[in-house]
Structure formats: structure tokens, C-alpha cells
């Protein structure tokens, strides 16, 4: 049996889809797993041992479709469910399975704050899509694989907190002044993790205590940053891809929620037998939260209470508890 899995982006979503790939490969005898994603997302899954062949979409979808047609898949597993994946499904003309995206339920939750969400994590729903093929969730959590050729830097051998300061949208990130306060309240070494967009903020934070706080934002590759997270004793992260990579490494995690929410069924997922601990920092009793599936550039209400009212002393206390 030959299966084509589709998940175009983003980093966190691809990691959240990883249990479906693993469970399919381990539970369907002789299955051949193909995975289609955006070329820009290549690093996220390139070392996944459960994938037999990768396909990367860049700009020419028609060329990608012609490549896929030649492979004669038995099923398409659509874990993205957008117009682009629909076009591929129609062009290939083979049976498909897809996960319950809960689009209507998410709309009701974010726009009218009516919680009709199914009590089923997005990763488990992705595995559920494979139930007609006899596949079930194995309880082993998320996967992220770093190529053996990649070695991350050694920082603070005695241990450190990895503080992920980036996120795809502003309403999913603590303001810089809040990050400064939080860094001052954490007594342990801190490694700042993020992309090039966070370099300037990282420099500002590192300047608070250069001997204790190191800014790696924009300096290292995704895999190298993942290894820094893997070596941390505690990981603090906004709702972003590195949060789920930390879960894949079974790290003690503090998740900080702003515009989005665990109610969207995207909370940190650990293996059923994991000893890793999770603390979710969310401002209680905010009638406007969550306001978005993915985050927004600015707060729709203008007050940004979901981040500005975060209990920073409690986050620092949780660092001590998890340390």
C-alpha cells in the first residue's frame, strides 16, 4: 500500500501531524509512506525515519501534481484540507482520508466564544483519519528528528532555561518589557531561542545580564535550535513550533497562551507514560480569549490583556518547580 500524506505547513502543524506518520508506518504491514510539504518546510521532517519518500511543493503545483500522478497512490491522507490539497486530490483521483478540522467549531469559539470543540487533540484527530486502515493512536506523543550530521552548541553545561521568544503573530508573544521582567525573575542561565525577526529583542534581553543570558535568535538553524531546546532543563515557549518540538523531546514545558488557547485542542502533547511536566500559563476569565486560530498582528480589542496580564512571578515559580 502506498500512502501520500499532505501537510504543507507550518513547523508546529507538521510536528503535530507526526503521530499519524509514525502510527501508519508501524501499524500497516508493508506500507510505503510519502509526505508532501512546502519546500520551505523541508527541514521540519527531512530526517523522519517513518517517511519513505518526500515531495516538496514550491511554486508550480501543476508540476508537483504530475510528479505525484506517476506514483499511483492507494490513498491520499489530507492533513491540511485547503484548496491546494483539494486540487491535488481531484487531480490524482484516488480515495482519500482526512482529519476532522473542526473549522465551524473553531469559528464559533474564536468569534462568539461558544465552545463546541470536540474533546480530541488535533494530533489524535490526525491519527483518527487513518482508522479505516486499522490505525490507532499508540500513545507515544510527537516526533521531531534531527539529522545525525547536525550538532548544536554547548551552552551552560550545568543547565539552562530555553526561552522561546518568537511566534508567528504579535498577539501570541509576550511584550518585550514583560520578557525583560521575566528574565530578571528567573535566577538560572537562559538561552533565548528564535528566528532572525527576534534578534534585536534577543540582544535587548541578553544585555540585562550578558553572563547569564545568551541570545541565539537568528544565529542557528532550525535543527540546531531544536537541539538547544532538547538540552534545556526547562522550556518556556509561546504557541509556536518550538513548543511542540520541546514536547517531542519530552522536556518540562511552560506554555504561554495569548490570542490562541488550549481550548483549540492544540495543547502540549506528551507520551502517555512521560515523566515530563507541563504548565500552561493563561490569563483566567478573559471573555475575548481565544480570539484567533493562529494569532493576529494586533489585539482586536486594543488592550492585549491576554499577554499583558500574564502572571510573570508564577511563571518564574513554575521554572523553579520544573527545574
Automatic annotation (TrEMBL):
Keywords (A to Z) from UniProt: Glycosyltransferase, Transferase
Source domain of life: Bacteria
Enzyme Commission code(s) on record: 2.4.-.-
InterPro entries: Glyco_trans_9, LPS_LOS_Heptosyltrfase
Pfam families membership: Glyco_transf_9 (PF01075)
Molecular function in Gene Ontology: glycosyltransferase activity
Name of the molecule in the record: Glycosyltransferase family 9 protein
Organism of this sequence: Aquirufa esocilacus
Upper taxonomic lineage: Bacteria, Pseudomonadati, Bacteroidota, Cytophagia, Cytophagales
Amino acid at each position: 500500500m502506498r500512502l501520500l500524506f499532505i501537510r504543507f505547513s507550518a513547523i508546529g502543524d507538521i510536528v503535530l501531524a507526526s503521530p499519524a506518520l509514525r502510527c501508519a508506518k508501524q501499524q500497516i504491514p508493508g506500507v510505503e509512506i510519502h509526505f508532501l510539504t512546502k519546500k520551505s518546510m523541508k527541514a521540519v521532517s527531512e530526517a523522519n525515519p517513518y517517511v519513505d519518500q518526500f515531495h516538496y511543493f514550491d511554486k508550480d503545483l501543476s508540476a508537483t501534481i504530475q510528479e505525484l500522478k506517476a506514483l499511483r497512490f492507494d490513498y491520499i491522507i489530507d492533513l491540511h484540507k485547503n484548496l491546494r490539497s483539494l486540487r491535488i486530490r481531484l487531480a490524482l483521483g484516488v480515495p482519500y482520508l482526512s482529519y476532522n478540522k473542526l473549522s465551524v467549531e473553531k469559528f464559533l469559539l474564536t468569534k462568539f466564544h461558544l465552545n463546541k470543540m470536540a474533546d480530541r487533540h488535533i494530533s489524535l484527530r490526525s491519527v483518527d483519519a487513518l482508522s479505516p486502515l486499522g490505525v490507532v493512536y499508540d500513545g507515544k506523543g510527537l516526533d521531531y528528528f534531527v539529522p545525525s550530521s547536525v550538532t548544536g552548541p554547548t551552552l551552560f553545561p550545568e543547565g539552562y532555561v530555553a526561552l522561546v521568544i518568537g511566534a508567528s503573530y504579535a498577539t501570541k508573544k509576550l511584550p518585550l518589557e514583560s520578557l525583560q521582567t521575566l528574565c530578571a525573575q528567573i535566577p538560572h542561565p537562559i538561552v533565548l531561542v528564535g528566528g532572525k525577526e527576534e534578534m534585536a529583542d534577543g540582544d535587548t534581553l541578553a544585555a540585562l545580564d550578558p553572563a547569564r543570558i545568551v541570545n541565539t535568535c537568528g544565529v542557528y538553524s532550525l535543527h540546531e535550535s531544536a537541539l538547544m531546546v532538547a538540552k534545556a532543563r526547562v522550556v518556556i515557549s509561546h504557541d509556536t513550533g518550538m513548543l511542540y518540538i520541546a514536547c517531542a523531546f519530552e522536556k518540562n514545558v511552560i506554555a504561554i497562551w495569548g490570542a490562541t488557547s488550549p481550548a483549540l485542542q492544540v495543547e502540549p502533547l506528551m507520551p502517555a507514560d512521560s515523566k515530563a511536566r507541563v504548565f500552561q500559563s493563561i490569563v483566567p476569565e478573559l471573555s475575548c480569549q481565544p480570539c484567533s486560530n493562529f494569532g493576529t498582528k494586533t489585539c482586536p480589542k486594543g488592550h492585549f490583556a491576554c499577554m499583558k496580564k500574564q502572571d510573570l512571578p508564577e511563571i518564574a515559580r513554575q521554572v523553579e518547580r520544573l527545574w
